[in-house]
Amino acid sequence: VNILAIESSCDETSAAIISNGKILNNIVATQSVHEKYGGVVPELASRAHQQHLIPVIHEAIESSGIPKDQLHAVAVTLGPGLMGSLMVGVSFAKAFAFSLDIPLIAVNHMEAHILAHFIDDPKPKFPFICLTVSGGHTQLVLVKSHLDMEVIGETLDDAVGEAFDKTAKLLGLPYPGGPLIDKHAKQGNPKAYQFPISDMPGLTFSFSGIKTAILYFLRDNLKHDDDFISKHIDDICASVQYTLIQTLMQKLKKASKTYGIKEIAVAGGVSANSGLRSELELLAKKHHWNVYIPKFEYCTDNAAMIAMAAHYKFAKGAFVGLDISPEARMKIG
Ligand code: ATP
Ligand code: MG
Ligand code: FE
Fold first, then answer.
1. Ligand 1 proximity of 164 Cβ (cutoff 6 Å)
2. How many Å apart are CA 67 and CA 282, to the nearest integer?
3. Rounded-to-integer distance, Cα 172 and Cα 232, Å
């Protein structure tokens, strides 16, 4: 079974081919137009998807060596994401499925981030808990099987990736700032400054408080010293990162304890963070967890994870009609 998968939910245009459950390639075009705006501009994102989509799909098909007439299905991200961006991928996928007379598979982007764990070994064992940390989401998901997942905790406001990116913006760093904060944090002292660790009930996250705390902290210090940021950027980044990671780890520990599960997976772009990775290693030793983090290229947005989800859906015959529409706020389950 050969499936073409397409991802266009945010600012990455991607296509991948999966053949009998094996990912053959994963072509990703990242949009750089957003850098100077400090965030993704939806209108520019959909236009860039229109420019990138055909070349990216062409490259995926060409490099796979599988001719178009040997594709058995087309899979596409239906949501959640930016409506205009989703529309580009979904419209193309429908037309492509129609023209080749093959079935269409609709994939939930957040489920796919989790299923990225099944691309390579070692794979987590069911049931496992997945902490999904990305630009738009912060979720704890109880994963019972490939296609049976339940959100057991999420953020009330900002996602943790957003907290990284907004902090970076306050520090004058370009978008997406998460990786740059990580870079500075490696040279700084995580205990240099203290920011509040939010204390929400149960498994709920909140990141708006820390964002405001950082804003006031910078404003107060800049009053006395114009160069405060440039002088202390490493310590500021290390302290902010420490706070964000501690906030995540507190809830992850709570989830593991509540459900009695020691199989712990992490998904989404923020799982690239080096502070998060080293903290997870420590917790794994301390609590005897098995921790799983996908390869970096499968952590950020990519079509390989959409292809993986499609592989399981194809096996179940979970196809959709050509009358489906993108769902900007699509939920897991
Ligand atoms: P969603 O999946 O919720 O729709 P998204 O697809 O935009 O959102 P991803 O592509 O999974 O999110 O991840 C992008 C996010 O990951 C950005 O917020 C980026 O700053 C963050 N990120 C990437 N690398 C790092 C890092 N090393 N440290 C911290 N954050 C990082
Ligand atoms: Mg992205
Ligand atoms: Fe994503």
1. yes
2. 47
3. 13
Rounded Cα distance between 301 and 115, Å, is: 12
Which residue type occupies 20?
A: N
pTM of the model: 0.95
pLDDT band at 33 (very low <50, low <70, confident <90, very high): confident
Cβ(160) to ligand 1 under 6 A? no
Residue 162 is encoded by which pair of tokens? 């957003």
- Please tell me whether 178 is known to bind a ligand: yes
Ligand 1 pocket check for 9: Cβ under 6 Å: yes
Q: Is the peptide bond before 294 cis (omega within 30 degrees of 0)?
A: no
Average pLDDT of the residues of the chain? 97
What is the spatial distance between Cα 32 and Cα 108, in angstroms, rounded to a whole number? Answer: 25
Closest ligand to the CA of 134: 1
Residues 6+ apart with CB under 8 A from 315: none
pLDDT in tens, 4-17: 999 999 999 999 99
184 is in an annotated binding site: no
Tell me how far CA of residue 44 lies from CA of 27, 33, 40, 78, 80, in angstroms. 20, 7, 8, 19, 18
- Tokens 């991607």 label which residue? 14
- Widest CA span of the chain, in angstroms? 67
Determine how many CB atoms are found less than 10 A away from the CB of residue 180: 18
To the nearest 10°, report the CA torsion of 12, 45, 135, 296: 10
Specify the DSSP class assigned to residue 195: -
Q: Which amino acid is at 331?
A: K
Secondary structure (H, E, C), 121-181: CCCCCCCEEEEEECCCCEEEEEEEECCEEEEEEEECCCCHHHHHHHHHHHCCCCCCCHHHH
User: Looking at ligand 1, which residue's alpha carbon is closest to its atom 5?
Assistant: 135
- Please tell me if the CB atom of residue 158 comes closer than 6 angstroms to any atom of ligand 1: no
3-state secondary structure 60-80: HHHHHCCCHHHCCEEEEEEEC
Q: Whose CA is nearest to atom 13 of ligand 1?
A: 269
